[in-house]
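Hi team, as promised in this morning's meeting, here are the two structures we talked about. I've kept the exact order from the run log so nobody has to guess. The first one is mostly here for context; it's the second one we should focus on when we meet again. Sequence first, then the predicted structure tokens.
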Amino acid sequence: MYDILGRPFAERYRRAVDELARQPHNAMDGGTLREGTGCQAVARECIAVSDGLQPQWVISGGTLDLPEPSAPTPTASPGPSCPMAGDSDRAPEAFDPLRL
């Protein structure tokens, strides 16, 4: 039963991921996004954020401004010397969203 009911949603999700993945892929091709970026993963993360914000908007009674960025947007990818880039000998500090 799930296969019949869930198939259209699964197909819609797959199309959304493919469509969203084109944007970071084009940025990577244009040299504005680091090579090796997981474009499909970026697309899935965008959908996950959107799926999380939608119920917050409903719960807030429509007062949450969805188009307004909720956090500063990075202007560049971390460079090779950045501990978060993965090539450092020491482990990166734990991320603390309250310490910006």
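And here is the second protein, the one for discussion:
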Amino acid sequence: LRFIDPLWRIKKFLNVGSEALLSESIKIIDDFTYSVIRRRKAELDEAKGDDNGAKMKHDILTRFIELGEDPESNTTEKGLRDVVLNFVIAGRDTTATTLSWALYMIMTHPHVAEKLYLELKSLEKERAIEENVALVECDTEDSVSFNQRVSQFAQLLTYDALGKLYYLHAVVTETLRLYPAVPQVSCSLYSSSTLGLTVSKIYLHI
């Protein structure tokens, strides 16, 4: 609301009104993001010190944390906080939009739905054998048994297992190609810059 409130600097200085609410909201977000970072660092330390060779999760946050351990890196705690916050904010609506379009495309292309179903069914059977798990008998007309089977399938999924779902990956990437969640990004320069050519202090569409 700062663009319609000429007194926001005074409110910020006095920490009152909307600026006080903003500060409180930022603190809640910071507490959450820093807790995610601390938890992942603890998991990494535990995995490194595990003589049994516990598997380490190599997700994006882990890679940024490992980058921060490099003496030549300038990655800070605040930098990691910004990375996590970017995941949370950017990954909400974009994920929802992409899933909506993916489901629409699957439902309007029965042959794709069939191939995707067979791939998921094959992975479920393979993982059940690996984990020595008896799959719950499922009836699509019975919501209880259906939900139990879905929950069981979710528990069988791992990072490695997801990597075997090549057709699912193709479905998602094709959905993103046809219906990108963010078709353009608006950026702005703090000041005019020269990188081979002069770019004025304006908003840019990427």
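Starting points for discussion:
The CA atoms of residues 106 and 113 lie 5 Å apart.
Residues 109-206 form one domain.
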